[in-house]
Amino acid sequence: MSDIIRFLERMGGDAQWRHAPGDIMEAALSEAELDPEHGAALLAGDTARLHALLGCAPLMAVQLPGQEEEEEQEDEGEGEDAPQPDSARQAAAFA
């Protein structure tokens, strides 16, 4: 099984394999001396068969947008310009 994995890694590392003609692919497969079933699945582009031969399931993930968290709003009276409660009491005491 490691031969097919090495072959797939080699294919994944070189973009020219994506659209390689069948005869070039057949030559590469025979050179790699892979199991004929693996080679047939690759040539046919049958990923389901290849997954079955390798004993693995296709990887799939779903991403959904999450709920936006509402920021806790500060009290309207609190801000940089508004006096703080302690300083407001001090101001009233001096008035």
Instruction: State the total count of DSSP E strands.
Output: 0
Q: What is the rounded distance between the termini?
A: 88 Å
> What structural category characterises the helix and strand content?
mainly alpha
What is the strand content?
under 5%
Biggest sheet: strands, sense, closure?
Answer: none
Helix content: 40-55%
Q: What does the overall shape look like?
A: elongated
General description of the model:
- With 95 residues, this protein is mainly α.
- It is built from 5 helices and no strands.
- Helix 3 runs antiparallel to helix 4.
- The model has no long low-confidence stretch (mean pLDDT 78).
Write the layout of secondary structure elements.
Blueprint: H1 2-12, H2 22-32, H3 36-44, H4 47-54, H5 85-94
Helix pairs in contact: 3-4
Keywords:
95 residues, mainly alpha, 5 helices
Short description:
With 95 residues, the chain is mainly α.
